[in-house]
Amino acid sequence: MGSTANDGRDGYLAFVENHQHRLLRAAYLICGNRHQAEDLLQDALLKLALRWPSVREGDPSAYVRTILYRDAVSWWRRRRREWLSATPPEQVAPDRDGALRLTLHDALGLLPPRQRAVLVLRYYEDLTEVATAEALGVTVGTVKNR
Asked: What is the pTM of this model?
């Protein structure tokens, strides 16, 4: 029994090592804040660890992405989207890729949480409409509409 438990732990650790950077990028894109993205990913990986024996044979990265997007939407519902600050945010020096990246980031920030989640899943994560709908718990028609 000890070797089976250890095999499960090793498989989980290998999954985290192989997928954590991509999942962190997805979490950052969906919430727009590095620290919040790290918290979201940490919570999602904890939930995955608790369900690892039943999830490991399927698609654990899809399971984690679903947790990320649903938890991010839940977080948005609980908190205001505005962040008050005494000083304006730092300005980044313009460059070709950086300016486009900032423009896209700003545009994503203007969208409601569910629309933002759909765009990140469809075009950053390159999921199909069906997979996006499953991850967000909505119909395919809702994904197309958003």
From this structure: 0.57
